[in-house]
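User: I've been trying to design a sequence by hand for this structure and keep getting stuck. Would you show me what you'd pick, starting by listing the structure so we're on the same page?

Assistant: Good idea, let's start from the same input. This is the structure you sent:
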């Protein structure tokens, strides 16, 4: 996969080049827009091995494949970089072609931009729910001083990336979010304990 992404640096189509250029442009524009607390939260919630992979997470891909074969369930394996590419390119079709293309773009993007900047850019344009998009959504929720937002609040917001807030959040959505946030706090505490 990495070799293919290197070949694409030379032989990519114009559409592919436009997509990678747009990803780099948005990373340059928004790479310092979101404070570290949100970047840490999105890494915990969406891609806890982010520092360890080159833009695609082979371990997550193998886990998702195993769960699909063993239990017939679909699990996500997208990295922050892949999610960013998906939002930028606005390609949502459920095909192997789209997924491979997204992975190749993510690998190319990581060679051109720092991961922290990509995560910040992603959070600056992501959909958190009805009426809450990107940096404006974060500022509407927390005010302009985003650097003062405590980690639990940042984690609660980025948890909505997987289950965006509906226009009128009901009990089912609130319960689902409470379960997700509790699981993330438990997982995050376990990760912090292992580091000590």
């Amino acid at each position: 996969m990495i070799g293919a992404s290197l070949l694409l640096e030379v032989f990519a189509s114009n559409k592919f080049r436009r997509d990678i250029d747009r990803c780099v442009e948005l990373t340059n524009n928004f790479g310092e827009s979101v404070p570290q607390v949100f970047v840490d939260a999105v890494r915990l919630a969406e891609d806890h091995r982010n520092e360890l992979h080159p833009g695609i997470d082979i371990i997550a891909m193998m886990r998702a494949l195993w769960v699909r074969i063993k239990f017939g369930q679909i699990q996500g394996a997208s990295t922050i970089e892949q999610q960013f590419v998906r939002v930028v390119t606005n390609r949502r079709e459920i095909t192997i072609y789209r997924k491979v293309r997204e992975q190749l773009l993510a690998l190319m993007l990581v060679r051109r931009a720092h991961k922290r900047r990509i995560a910040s850019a992603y959070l600056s344009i992501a959909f958190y729910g009805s009426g809450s998009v990107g940096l404006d959504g974060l500022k509407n929720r927390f005010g302009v001083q985003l650097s003062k937002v405590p980690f639990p609040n940042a984690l609660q917001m980025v948890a909505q990336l997987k289950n965006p807030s509906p226009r009128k959040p009901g009990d089912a959505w609130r319960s689902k979010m409470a379960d997700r946030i509790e699981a993330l706090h438990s997982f995050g505490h376990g990760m912090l304990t292992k580091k000590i």
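That's my pick for every position. To get oriented when you compare it with your attempt: The chain has one domain: 2-195. Residues 190-196 have pLDDT under 50 and may be disordered.
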